[in-house]
Amino acid sequence: MKVLLLLGLVAVALCEPVKFVGDKVLRLTPGSEEHVTIIKEIGDKIKVDFWRPDSADLVTIGKTVDIHVPAAQLDMVYTILHQSGMEVTVMLENLQAAVEAQLDKRATKAHGYTKYNDWATISEWVSSIAAANADLISTQVIGNTYEGRPMHLLTIGKKTGSAKPAIFMDCGFHAREWISPAFCQWFVNEAVTTYGTDSEMTTLLDSMDFFVLPVFNIDGYAYSWSNDRMWRKTRSPNSGSNCVGTDPNRNFDAGWCTVGASSNPCSETYCGSSIESEIESKNLANFIRSNKAVVKAYLTVHSYSQMLLFPYSYTYDLAADHSELLSVSRGATSALTSLYGTRYTAGPGAATIYPAAGGSDDWAYDLGVRYSYTFELRDEGFYGFLLPESQIQPTCEETMLAIKYIATHVLNNPY
């Protein structure tokens, strides 16, 4: 009996979500090569979680670094930083409190557009919104995840019986970026509820289709709800390692694993065992390859940093369509800023945020999808990945303006 009780307690302990009591998020500003080296050494030798940039390898002079430091490592990290004379700001004083404060104190499990919804709720929402808007929405499954969850894709647009140019948009590449899937859900609802009253949206849906993948990394997203709010990667095992998961945005055929990505399975930027080693990556890539004739834009939604990025990230070379991509991104960010004054930076990924190989946006562009963009939504680090639910609506409202700007440009500039 005692053994059974002990096994039961162990099982409960294994299911308990990770707690972050006393953990802090620090913002560092490296002002010299020595500071950069110190941050990289902290990343190598102490268990800290890089929020921005994605890994220690990407730290450069003058660009702020946000790191999540567990309570047990704080004294050591503070000692090292104090001795270095580096500028340090505490962004989140108590990470666990921020995790708990992110969700409004509402006891409802029902789906909502101004709350974060778990995967089961999103999956049910896909069925219900499609059934309620059969004239504008159809759904399909483009494949299953590693853990067997169906990857639902919604096609939104007026059914004309013939092929139309399309925009592919995905959310939820990185599990902990919860504002991203919230935006895809908002977009779908906004599209169907404003069709017929909003002239711009009506024109877009009459003339184009939107392929929307509300959550790409479903296994990781589910795990970030059940076990570890800070989980980033997929949930596939890695041969020869106890570390789980691959960074799906380092897993595509775009300078794969050359820069800003790691071949170490324990790294948050692990590129995978091979190009498209992750079934989720392969499912997405296969769908876009199969629909290459109609997919004219690729939009992938991440957080955080308030940026609108375009190719390239795996090289500092400018894309062939650089001037047009820059012009469109500036128009889109200007439209976004017009609503609440939220400032975005626009530019090519490598130069604007950091070099990173294997990204889906670069892959899509090299495939021939000219208008390829990555959104990094709110904020600039005050809440980071823990953007409160109270900010979902304004974030989604302003982002809609940018998406509609890009979509209208794509529609008016066929290729």
Give me some keywords for this one.
415 residues; 12 strands; single chain; alpha/beta
Short summary:
With 415 residues, the chain is of the alpha/beta class. 38% of the residues lie in helices and 17% in strands. It has 13 helices and twelve strands.
Explain what the structure shows.
The protein contains 13 helices and 12 strands. It is α/β, with parallel strands linked by helices and 415 residues long. An 8-stranded mixed sheet has the order 5-6-8-7-9-12-10-11, with helices on both faces. Strands 2-3-1-4 form a 4-stranded antiparallel sheet, covered by helices on one side. The N and C termini lie far apart (71 Å). It is an enzyme of class 3 (hydrolase). One of its GO terms (cellular component) is extracellular space. InterPro entries: CARBOXYPEPT_ZN_1, CARBOXYPEPT_ZN_2, M14A-like_propep, M14A_act_pep, Peptidase_M14. One of its GO terms (molecular function) is metallocarboxypeptidase activity.
What does the radius of gyration come to? 21 Å
Q: Summarize the helix and strand pattern as letters.
A: HEHEEHEHHEEEHHEHHEEHEHHEH
How large a portion of the residues is in β-strands, by DSSP E? Answer: 15-25%
Q: How many individual helices?
A: 13
Strand line-up of the largest beta sheet:
5-6-8-7-9-12-10-11
How far is it from the N-terminal to the C-terminal residue, by CA?
Answer: 71 Å
Cofactor: Zn(2+)
Protein name: Carboxypeptidase B
Enzyme class: hydrolase
GO molecular function, one term: zinc ion binding
